[in-house]
Amino acid sequence: IADIEEEGKRKAAAEADYYAAKAAAYARLLAEGNATAAGNMVKGDADVNRALFEFRLAESRYKAAQSAAQLFTNEESHCYHEYRIAMSGDRER
Fold first, then answer.
1. Which of 56, 49, 65, 51 is nearest to 8 (CA)?
2. Hey, is 90 helix, strand or coil?
3. Could you tell me the sign of the dihedral formed by the alpha carbons of 85, 91, 92, 93, in that order?
4. Of 88, 22, 93, which is closest to residue 55 (Cα–Cα)?
């Protein structure tokens, strides 16, 4: 759970950084007089792309932590199920 929480915080911070970089690049391009193309030009900005990369990386780590926790839960459930069968005296299994 702690890993998921930590990765969730990193994901949220990276997402906030991405949107801040995107907004800053858009404002800068508008100020430079690129009003009509600013929306498309933002996609090519190095800072925006770096922030997007960091956001996607953090998102992947968050999903991996969630998957690891789910795998652990499934394994524990399976072990408990096998234990209950063994304790029931079912020798045929």
1. 65
2. coil
3. positive
4. 22
In angstroms, the Cα distances linking 18 to 24, 42, 64 are: 10, 12, 21
- Determine how many CB atoms are found less than 10 A away from the CB of residue 52: 19
Taking each helix axis from N to C terminus, what angle separates 46-88 and 2-31, rounded to the nearest 10 degrees?
A: 160
Find tokens 């009509």 and name the residue.
Answer: 36
pLDDT tens digit string along 55-81? Answer: 999 999 998 888 888 887 777 776 766
Chain length of the chain: 93
pTM: 0.65
